[in-house]
Design a protein that fits this description.
The complex is a heterodimer.
Chain A: E1 2-6, H1 12-21, E2 27-32, H2 36-45, E3 49-51, H3 54-58, E4 64-67, H4 74-83, E5 87-91, H5 98-110, E6 115-118, H6 125-135, E7 142-148, H7 161-164, H8 168-184, E8 188-197, E9 206-215, E10 220-224, E11 240-245, E12 249-253, E13 258-263, E14 267-272, H9 277-290, H10 299-318, E15 322-323
Parallel strand pairs in A: 1-2, 1-4, 2-3, 4-5, 5-6, 7-10
Antiparallel strand pairs in A: 7-11, 8-9, 8-15, 9-10, 11-12, 13-14
Helix pairs in contact in A: 4-5, 5-10, 6-8, 8-10
Chain B: E1 2-7, H1 11-21, E2 26-32, H2 36-43, E3 49-51, H3 54-60, E4 66-69, H4 76-85, E5 89-93, H5 100-112, E6 117-120, H6 127-137, E7 144-152, H7 166-169, H8 171-175, H9 178-188, E8 191-198, E9 209-216, E10 221-227, E11 234-241, E12 245-249, H10 281-295, H11 303-322, E13 326-327
Parallel strand pairs in B: 1-2, 1-4, 2-3, 4-5, 5-6, 7-10
Antiparallel strand pairs in B: 7-11, 8-9, 8-13, 9-10, 11-12
The chains are: A alpha/beta, B alpha/beta.
């Protein structure tokens, strides 16, 4: 399969490109980037063609595109891919407004291309194992979930609202919401959020938050989406879930497969040794598209997760619980 | 010598009694509990008398400096008032009462009767908690943004199964999480908003779980988890701040871990780690209260603090019921 990448603005592009290069049945036909320096650098690194204009990449016989541009540009890029009849895997969050996301899904459908949202955590082996345990009914009925997806302030365009659409809340709500929806099969009904602005640096953006959600089946959950990890924390952040069921509890720490490294340079750092989830995410996208079925995490999944993040901002602004329509 | 009368020979009563027995300036003069067997187990060889009621103890004992009330929450008001009527100083287990109004009523009653009231919010006396507070207040990690606290384990078993009835225990929000509410208020001052979700009222038996978000006037956001849904008791906290993070997890604390190889007779057991201190937090707490009693010093945790902790629990319960955030108004009233 011939695959192209639009923009290396998001650092995940590097990981995705590395994964693609490991696949014998995939050709990375090109990288499009409005930033010439960046685009040329990665085109050289991954031994592929550079396009300054993504339109030119879409004119080739490329079959599928990975969109890893800034959040607010996903809309334009995904629409262009769809109209050029290319399947798309879009970095999360799918977009920054409900209207845009709905249109992206609609246009992809109209053009007969699959739209996937890059939710790699679904392909994290411990998370997938947790889903299996729950699917087997071992926990009974799920009553509550406590989640965290904390991280480090990524800086750059992530803290420029015009490009990112939002800070920590938008960046770090979608993964865990998606996992909860995927694991339980229920939808978020109400959202309440406490959000912190410039709590961890002077940068004027939301960098912390606790989001509380009620679900259609009566279950509830909270999520800590804060960029609260500092330079000396042993790792970048986490994805954890504590799941309370009628028959027991299940603790999931997606990146707990690690070794401790103590160095004079960096103090304590955790070095991961678990499976590479990005690789499996891309394999799922490629094989799904090739077999004519939607990828595991669709555009709709991307929309539903982002909807919660947007509701969180609304909740904090209004200081009240936001009810989602279904 | 301070003469202490303990009311209640349950789990907390036993803990408090062993602390008193270790104090040189305190004599545990009596235990009030109709369950003689339980009381006898606590007393062992010590010179402590057993009474069926507070009235009986007051009539028979020559001197009582202080009563220590370790009975289920629903009897707190009754015993505090009785003790106050006898003019006795009081140590009372947490939560002081079910509602803020009731807690205030108890506090005012003690003031009126001119007796001291100490409420046993023991978490303030756990060194890992008091040290973390000190580090935060000293600015070791800069301005705090997000706090996470967790507490809980298995569903508790009390005398007559009083925990089973959420009306009697108040569930995790009133009985358990109040520890962290008080602790966090001790560091960050008064809360402004409280939002809560929990299992209370869901009708599920012998299980409780709640997730509560407190937002302080300073803007600090605190996430508090209370659980009676897990197997093993543990507590955790994390302060994430501008220039650092302070983290503690009791389940990772194993200063002494005894694991015995199974014998044929021995049941399969889990090795429970021990974390020994020269003085247990309960000892430190009660020693402090006795010291305050003797000197008239202001305690580390006041009855006013205890009322405020109940108030936060009440706000959480109200939020849980209404599905809305509960905002503390300017006057401090709900």
């Amino acid at each position: 399969m011939k695959i192209g990448i639009i923009s290396f603005a998001h650092m995940h592009a590097v990981s995705y490109a590395s994964s693609l290069k490991k696949m014998k049945d995939v050709t990375l036909v090109g990288i499009a980037d409005e930033n010439v320096e960046r685009g040329e650098k990665y085109a050289k690194q991954f031994d592929t063609q550079f396009f300054n204009r993504y339109e030119d990449l879409l004119k080739t016989d490329v079959e599928a595109i990975i969109v890893t541009s800034e959040n607010t540009k996903h809309y334009e890029h995904v629409l262009a891919c769809a109209k050029a009849k290319k399947h798309v895997l879009c970095e999360k969050p799918l977009a920054t407004t409900m209207e845009h996301m709905k249109e992206m899904i609609k246009v992809c459908e109209e053009n007969g291309v699959f739209l996937g949202t890059a939710f790699p955590v679904r392909f994290n082996t411990p998370v997938a194992q947790a889903k299996k345990i729950i699917d087997e009914g071992k926990l009974g009925e799920i009553l509550a979930i406590k989640g965290t997806n904390r991280g480090t302030n990524p800086g750059g365009w992530f803290v420029n609202k015009e490009l990112s659409g939002g800070g920590a809340v938008l960046d770090h709500t979608v993964h865990v919401v998606d996992i909860i929806r995927w694991i339980t099969g229920v939808e978020v009904k109400d959202v309440y959020a406490e959000i912190g602005y410039s709590r961890f640096s002077d940068i004027p953006i939301d960098d912390s938050g606790i989001i509380t959600m009620g679900f259609t089946n009566g279950m509830f959950a909270t999520l800590d989406c804060s960029w609260s990890r500092n330079d000396y924390y042993p790792t970048w952040g986490d994805v954890t879930l504590d799941i309370i069921g009628t028959k027991g509890t299940l603790k999931v720490d997606a990146f707990d497969q690690k070794i401790n490294v103590y160095s004079n340079q960096n103090g304590l750092k955790w070095h991961p040794w678990g499976d590479d989830m990005d690789y499996v995410l891309l394999r799922n996208f490629i094989t799904s598209v090739r077999d004519g079925r939607p990828p595991l995490a669709t555009g709709y999944a991307g929309l539903k997760a982002t909807e919660v993040a947007l509701a969180a901002y609304e909740s904090f602004e209004k200081k009240t619980t936001v009810i989602l329509n279904h | 010598m301070q003469e202490v009368l303990l009311i209640g020979a349950g789990t907390m009563g036993k803990e408090h009694a062993s602390a008193y027995y270790a104090m040189e300036n305190v004599h545990l003069t009596g235990i009030v509990d109709p369950r003689q067997v339980e009381a006898k187990k606590i007393i062992g060889d010590h010179d402590t008398k057993i009474f069926a009621s507070l009235e009986e103890a007051v009539n028979e004992l020559e001197k009582i400096d202080c009563v220590d009330i370790c009975v289920p929450t629903l009897f707190h008001k009754e015993y505090v008032k009785k003790a106050a009527d006898y003019g006795l100083n009081i140590i009372c287990e947490k939560p002081l009462a079910y509602t803020y109004e009731e807690a205030r009523e108890i506090l005012e009653y003690c003031k009126e009767k001119q007796v001291q009231l100490f409420v046993a919010h023991v978490v303030r006396f756990f060194p890992q908690y008091s040290e973390a507070r000190k580090l935060v207040l000293e600015g070791t990690i800069g301005d705090v943004g997000v706090v996470r606290a967790r507490r809980g384990g298995a569903f508790p078993i009390g005398n007559g199964d009083w925990y089973r009835d959420p009306q009697k225990s108040g569930g995790v929000i009133l009985d358990l999480m109040i520890h962290d509410f008080d602790y966090l208020r001790w560091i960050f001052g008064d809360v402004e908003r409280v939002y809560a979700k929990g299992l209370l009222g869901s009708g599920i038996q012998n299980l409780d779980y709640a997730l509560v978000t407190l937002t302080f006037k300073s803007g600090v956001i605190a996430h508090v988890e209370g659980t009676w849904a897990h197997h093993t008791f543990s507590t955790q906290f994390e302060f994430a701040a501008r220039t650092g993070i302070i983290e503690y997890d009791s389940s990772k604390e194993e200063p002494v871990l005894l694991s015995l190889r199974e014998t044929e007779e021995a049941k399969v057991g889990v090795a429970v780690p021990q974390s020994p201190l020269r003085k247990s937090p309960y000892f430190t707490e009660l020693e402090h209260f006795i010291h305050c009693l003797e000197t008239g010093e202001q305690p580390i945790v006041t009855a006013e603090d205890a009322c405020k902790a109940v108030e936060i629990s009440n706000m959480a319960l109200k939020s849980l019921q209404t599905g809305k955030p509960v905002i503390l108004s300017e006057g401090g009233e709900l």
